[in-house]
Amino acid sequence: MTRLLAIASAFVVPENRSVFKSLADDYGFDVTLVSPASWLQSRYGATEVFRVKPEEKEGYRVIPLRLTTGTCGRYRDLVPEIRRSRPRIVVCAQEFNSFATIHSLFLARIIARWPLTMSCSLQNIPYSLNRLRHRVRKCASFAASDVILASCTDAANVLKSRGYRGRIEVTYPLGAAAADGGHPPKTTTRHSPFTVGFVGRIAAEKGVFDLVDAWARMEGTARLLFVGGGPDRARLESRIAELGLTSRVDFAGLVPRSEMAAYYGGMDALAIPSLSTPSWKEQFGVVLAEAMLMGVPVVGSNSGAIPEVIGDAGLIFPEGDVSALVTCLNVLRMNLVKRRDFSMRGLARAQALYTPKAMAAQLVEIFSNMGAT
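Structure (tokenized):
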């Protein structure tokens, strides 16, 4: 039984543990997950507190530890857990150049006698490393990582441009679709209100204003559903009122991921019309994977990783091109055959690539190629 230790602040959310739980349940690994014992998250004026309880069963454990904050934040009492788990593989499922990642991987190398070490990167824009501490962390993190898991091709290219010469794999272990997937394609008829959903942060860079402007050109009783919250919601609602669309647009607010299946089930399509900025572009797009797993056809701009996630299983348009977005939405609205075809293609792609078990299989192949299993 291969022993694996995974460390991530994102493990405070149970859905983010799903790939590693699959390694234990489906592939026979002995898995120990280290998570912060508590986590404070502030979003859009509201503060949410996560508290993690210990969990243990045969071959799978969740260990909450204190994570200190600040520039040199690190996990307290990690040494005993490394000794106890005796890992052959260590995965820090968080940014490769964070102090917590560097500290954890070097500790594991010293205590566990040189296990296979992995970190992750979502950084798909090459920001400046003009501070000495940034350059030092980059060098230390590269030295500590046998493999870096990049969320998309752009992130892999940024790593290469910064001089990383180790192994890079394009996969993201926190990107599994959490919705209750595997549903058959929807059987919507022309007599049903055509409903397009948006899931995510309601902010200008997410293309929400382009989506509303496109919606203003749609005729009939078609409806638009926003699921999420964000800094630009009030401004977006004002824009919707100006366009006379208030009766055709709904806001569901923030919804727990565990409850998202019901919302995806009410959509005829999901639209993610993101706009790249000098400091940000889409790094993965979990909501796309979740929608496809629910059999919902997807439409996305060509920002960042969106085309990689969708592949040939949905419609892609040039970011910022409202007319092209209208065309894509009308294709799905008016052509039930195409809608069903994209629904089936998306479902097949998500089942093959984005379920916890499928993403765990990708990790198993990487471990095997590196001689760790």
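The chain has two domains: 3-176+355-369, 195-353. Residues 92 and 119 are 5 Å apart (CA to CA).
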